[in-house]
C-alpha cells in the first residue's frame, strides 16, 4: 500500500471487522450476565454454571493457536465466512439447548470459532491498511470488544430477564447474521495466503523474542484483572449504594472506549518504547487505589483512571507480535496474530487467581499492590524488549 490515507473502502472494512468483534465479544461476555438464569433453568449451582465461562477461556487459549497453525493456508475470505456461518449455527443451537452438557459443548466449539475469527480479523486489518494507519484500524477492531461490554452485554442481560436466557442466544444468532452479511459484501477477495507446515508455524513459539512479547500483554491484563475481578467488593467497602454499582460498572466500560482510542495513538509511533512508561503509570494508578478508596469521590476517579489505562497495550502488542513474526518466521503471521487474544485470556486468568489468593489471605485492598507489582513486571519486560529492538537496529 503506497497511500497513507484511509479510503471509504478502508473505513467500510474497518467498521465491518469492528461489527464482527462486537458480535463475538457479546457472545463471549454475555454469559456472565445470564449465569444465574442458566443455573436456575438447568437446576444447577452457580459454581457449576461458572464452568461455562472458564471452559470457554481455556478452550479459546489452547485451541486458537493450534487451529490458526493448521489452517494458515486456507483462503482467508472463504474461511472467515465459513466460520461466521458456523458461529450462527452454534448460537442457534444454544437457543434450543436443554442440558448443561449440550450447552458446555456448544460454548467450547464457539470458543474455537471466536478465537480464530478474532485472529483473522486482526490479520486482515493489519495487512489491508496503509502502514501508518494500522494502529488506528486495529484499535477500532479491538473497540468492538469494548462496545460488547458496554452495549451488547447489558442488552443481552435485559433480554434474558424479560424472555429467558435462550432469547439472549437468539440475539447473538441475529447479530451473527448481520456480521455474515456485511462480511460477505465487504471482505476483499485478494488476501494473503501462505502455505507452510505445522513445523514452520510452531517454530515461532520457541523464539525467545516472541515469548517475551507474549508475556507483555499477559502481565498487562493480569495487573488490571487482579483488581477488576474484585471491583464489586471494593465498591462495597467504599460504601457505594447497591443501586449505583451497576452504573459505576457501566461508567468503567464507557471510559474504556477512550482507552481504546488512546491505544491506537500509542501504537502509531514507537509503540513499545511508549508502553514502557504506560505500564509504570498503570502501576501508580493501581497502587493508588490502596489510599484513594478511603474517599468515595477520589476512589471513583481512581477507578476511572484504572479503566483508562486498562487496554492501552492492546493495539501495540498485537502489531508487535505480527511484526516480530515477519522477522523470525514470516510464514507464521497468522499464529502470531492469535497470540495477543490468547495472552489476554492467560493474563485475565492469572490476575484473577493471584488477586483471589491475596484476597483470601490478607486485607482486600492489598490486591492493589499485587496489581501494581505485576504492572511493573510488564514494564520491565517491555524495557528489555525495547532495548533488544534498538540493539538489533544498530549496524554491527
Summarize it:
It comes from Heyndrickxia acidicola. With 396 residues, this protein is mainly α.
Task: Report what the structure shows.
With 396 residues, the protein is an all-alpha fold. The chain contains 16 helices and no strands. Helix 1 packs parallel to helix 6, helix 6 packs antiparallel against helix 11 (242-266) and helix 9 runs antiparallel to helix 14. The longest helix is centred in the middle third of the chain and has 30 residues, at 134-163. The model has no long low-confidence stretch (mean pLDDT 89).
Average residue-wise pLDDT: 89
The total beta strand count reads: 0
Main beta-sheet strand count, sense and barrel state? none
Q: Helix and strand string, N-terminal first?
A: HHHHHHHHHHHHHHHH
Q: How many individual helices?
A: 16
Backbone shape: globular
CA-CA gap between termini: 31 Å
Counting helices, strands and paired strands, the structural category is: mainly alpha
Strand content: under 5%
Keywords: Cell membrane, Membrane, Transmembrane, Transmembrane helix, Transport
Domain Major facilitator superfamily (MFS) profile: 13-390
Membrane topology: Multi-pass membrane protein
Main location: membrane
Task: Sum up the structure in keywords.
16 helices, single chain, 0% strand, 396 residues, mainly alpha
